[in-house]
Write a structure and sequence with these properties.
Shape: elongated
Order of helices and strands: EHEHHEHHEHEHHHHEEHEEHEEH
Strand content: 15-25%
Strand order of the largest sheet: 6-7-9-8-10-11
Number of strands: 11
Largest sheet: 6 strands, antiparallel
């Protein structure tokens, strides 16, 4: 008889639910391999290093959370394979630009691959029935399980006793009576359990994925509408969508205007992606992106002047550069009211 421990793959975000799910199963003697899937497009410790390779490395929140409960967390980069899921979801989007159902299927298919590779027997998630409007309703959870290829092999310990028994429960690898029956959006039961298990520090419940945020969702939609749905872009382009003020210059071009010195530095670091603009009067750095024409650059110069110290002057000298090319224009500052009509998100 084999003495090898039963092994499971746990999807681990570092949030309280994923911490509890992994801990509950590990406490039953299962060898839990915690995996954090990074889809690439949302902010995180790696974001600043994408835009600024010289930025200090930061420990991902999921890795820190795993360490606090004695789990080594592996981070798996799903970008650029995730791009197809993002721009062509079979099951559509939620209220923002969030393809929640397809996203969960994508992650669980990746987990199923790791399960086979690591000779694990099942997969764990921290999902709770009714907690999320799209992906954590009973019918959606069942569909996700089937489409991911994990039918019967996907254990959701926090709601398990409200669901049909999975193979790990039927085979006795885990004790169903020691699993939970939590449902709904509240977190009181999870917080009480964390206290009983002496888990200590854990993140406060977050607002959700960045793709649900209205401003970022609007920028992503605009970006894809004018760019098209080709292969995954340079990830820097996506992370720039999370910086500054964004303006549509023309159907083919847009501009990003920094809001502070830190964003100015990041735009400078990535000036190779477009044309750099800066007014002689103290003000922000701007990048004009996606192949701007002359009229686009003049409009970007007017926007740049409008956000600088010379905004009340009739004309402001603005320097425009790309690589070794450089020239200047005298731009009439665009008022913030006029700029607002071009604002994206």
């Amino acid at each position: 008889m084999s003495t090898e421990p039963i092994r499971a793959i746990a999807l681990f975000s570092g949030g309280l639910d994923s911490i509890l799910a992994a801990r509950i199963v590990r406490d039953q003697g299962i060898d839990v391999i915690a995996v954090h899937f990074d889809i690439g497009v949302c902010p995180g410790p790696g974001t600043r290093r994408v835009l600024d390779p010289e930025a200090p490395e930061e420990e991902p929140a999921a890795v820190a959370a795993g360490r606090r409960i004695g789990l080594a967390v592996e981070t798996v980069d799903l970008y650029p394979a995730y791009w197809e899921t993002l721009v062509r979801p079979r099951h559509g989007y939620g209220s923002g630009f969030n393809p929640c159902l397809d996203c969960k299927v994508h992650m669980l298919r990746a987990a199923a691959g790791l399960m086979r590779e690591r000779e694990a027997r099942f997969v764990i998630t921290g999902e709770v029935i009714g907690q999320r409007p799209m992906s954590q309703q009973r019918n959606a959870m069942r569909m996700i399980e089937k489409e991911s290829g994990l039918d019967g092999l996907l254990l959701r310990p926090l709601s398990a006793r409200l669901l049909d028994p999975t193979l790990p429960e039927r085979e006795g690898w885990v004790d169903r009576e020691r699993l939970l029956e939590i449902a709904g959006r509240g977190r009181k039961e999870q917080m009480a359990l964390a206290e009983r298990l002496e888990i200590g520090e854990y993140p406060s419940p977050a607002g959700g994925c960045c793709l649900t945020e209205p401003v970022f969702a609007a920028r992503m939609r605009d970006y894809l509408e004018h760019r098209g749905e080709e292969e995954a872009p340079d990830l820097r382009e996506i992370h720039l969508l999370q910086l500054g003020r964004h303006f549509r210059l023309s159907p083919r071009s847009r501009a990003v205007v920094a809001r502070d010195s830190g964003e100015c530095r990041l735009l400078d670091r990535n000036a190779d992606l477009g044309w750099r603009l800066e007014a002689e009067a103290r003000g922000p750095v701007t990048l004009a992106l996606d192949g701007p024409g002359d009229s686009d650059l003049l409009l970007a110069a007017a926007i740049t002047a409008g956000y600088g110290d010379g905004r009340n002057d009739p004309r402001v000298p603005v320097r425009i550069t790309r690589g070794e090319r450089e020239w200047g224009v005298d731009a009439a500052p665009l008022s913030k009211e006029e700029a607002a009509r071009l604002r994206i998100g």
